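Renewal narrative, Specific Aim 1. Our central claim is that a sequence can be written position by position from structural information alone. The example that follows is taken directly from our test logs and has not been curated for this report. It begins with the structure tokens describing the chain, in the order in which they were read.
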């Protein structure tokens, strides 16, 4: 999915890590001036200056929860994706919030049901894939601040839909 012209939020870590030689152009979006990696400065809720249908892939990780109007942001992302382009998004389910983080205020946490509804209001329902990851052990470990090394891979991979720690959308 990570190919062609790719937009990532904040930096291009995932673009470089997973796109490799399939990426022709790597753009980085930041909401305000000052990020030396940013090639585009925009508030996704009102980014009419970004041309339509220019990105083959948008990597949108852990950002939707920090946007007060997630519907407006998703409409912008849909508009700037090329036909058959792919949006790869992650956002928190069960989590702690830190209102003093430098990334800005924390407005929302999501469930797979709320994510599905949001995304299907903007993208064709047939093209939306929502998945959740987590279980009670992962949720409590995360909330207590345990390190990944303190939980086995098998324990991390078990999915329980009642404990959605991470939600993904494609």
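The sequence written for that structure reads:
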């Amino acid at each position: 999915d990570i190919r062609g012209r790719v937009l990532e939020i904040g930096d291009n870590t995932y673009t470089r890590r997973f796109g490799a030689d399939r990426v022709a152009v790597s753009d980085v979006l930041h909401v305000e001036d000052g990020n030396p990696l940013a090639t585009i400065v925009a508030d996704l809720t009102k980014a009419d200056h970004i041309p339509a249908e220019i990105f083959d892939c948008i990597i949108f990780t852990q950002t939707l929860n920090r946007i007060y109007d997630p519907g407006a942001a998703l409409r912008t992302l849909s508009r700037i994706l090329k036909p058959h382009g792919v949006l790869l998004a992650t956002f928190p389910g069960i989590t702690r919030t830190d209102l003093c983080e430098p990334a800005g205020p924390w407005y929302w946490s999501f469930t797979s049901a709320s994510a599905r509804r949001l995304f299907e209001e903007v993208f064709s329902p047939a093209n939306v894939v929502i998945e959740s990851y987590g279980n009670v052990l992962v949720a409590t470990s995360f909330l207590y601040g345990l390190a990944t090394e303190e939980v086995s891979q098998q324990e991390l991979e078990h999915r329980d839909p009642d404990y959605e720690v991470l939600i993904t959308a494609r």
